[in-house]
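Two quick folds needed for the group meeting slides. Do the first one here.
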Amino acid sequence: MSRPTILYVLLAYGLSWCAFTPLALQGQGIISGVPAWLHLLGAYGPLAAAFIVTLLTAGPAGARELVARMARWQIGWGWLLVAALSPVAVFGLVVSVLRLIDGTWQAASGFGRVAELPQLGWLAGWAVWILTFGIGEETGWRGFALPRLQARYSARDAALIVGLLWAGWHAPAFFYNYERSLIAVVAFVVGIIAGAMVLAWLYNSTGGSVLATALWHGTYNAAVAGGEAVVAAVTTAAVILAFVVIARRYGPEHLAPRPRQMVAE
């Protein structure tokens, strides 16, 4: 990795962990009184790190280019629908199957739920997921790190590196928000890497649209974060299957039907 990428990773971890660490300490009973919404604030660590390093290495022009990719919405209605609704489609399918099994629509109530803001309805919660972990994480991991790694490696290898770094970024959450068993950790890492591959496909296919990846990421979180475990498990399995299909169809070099977005080191 280049020095700007290493600096980005250190800053992304450091800034986010300033929010995640107090929650982890509270989750272990060491301290108390930490507000739950701090978890949402930690989502902006990658975004802040991306802009700091971009300003240091490319100046205001580089920052403006990053903002342009964050707002890039003219990618075709098909890609916008894939970005915003493909996790919804999987969620709907799983919920429908559960309805046939148990006779209720209980699983559907989990969509858009934000545990840190329980007063929100599903639509507002969906928006919160996009505006926090969607925009916050994707500006950094896909908007900054991925294109720089793709300048040196194939899209598949770059996405793998990003996926491993991205998984490590979540580590404090296992002390207050995620199950900490070995099986849960391994499943999480595999799911994150598959997600990194799918997001690399979406980013490269849309000519480097951070907005597209933020929509997909936020919608995925809205579908799995507040619902039943089976919904999250099946949705994650669908993401893994999607990666396998993408890799077989487009190959490791680009993971996309178009030339990938490159950013000079």
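Then this one, please, same format:
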Amino acid sequence: MRTKADPQPGPPLPAAHELLGAALLAAGRPLSASELGNLLSLGTSETAALVDTYDQALLGIGAGFRVEAVGGGYRLVISPALAACLSPVMAPPALPTLSAAALEVLAIIAYRQPVTRAEIEAMRGGSASTVLTLQERELVRVAGKSPAVGQPLLYATTARFLIEFGLNALQDLPELGSQDFSELLRG
């Protein structure tokens, strides 16, 4: 029998699951495997395995929410099948509606990054003035300078872009079948 004075090698699985779930709920943002590992005193691979086990447990009991890998971390989200049923009580999305022009510029940056403003304008056939709005909303960042004449700024997406669009990495961007970038928006 273990007493309070006996050292524990680490939290038992149910306690680790409880702490994992509480951390994901309390954070209000995606938590990286490293952050969770530090909290749980686990390595990155052990943490990833625990997250997967926790997600499967949620699915198994029909909890109504899941763990989603997004933006290089993990967060709790409602099950996609329940989203339509919950729309009357859900909070409005954090990302304000983007204009069609802003969406086009954002999609060009996401798919072609790093990219200069001149390249964006050439692909769009029009102004890329919405880059500033996208920067203000922390969806786009300056990623450096091009070695081209004049050293124009290069633009790339941010971690917030990944989070707002429900992506874990840029490789998760959907294939584009048309120029209608509004299909990329979630919710």
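Slide caption for protein two: Residues 13-83 form a domain with the Arc Repressor Mutant, subunit A fold (CATH 1.10.10.10).
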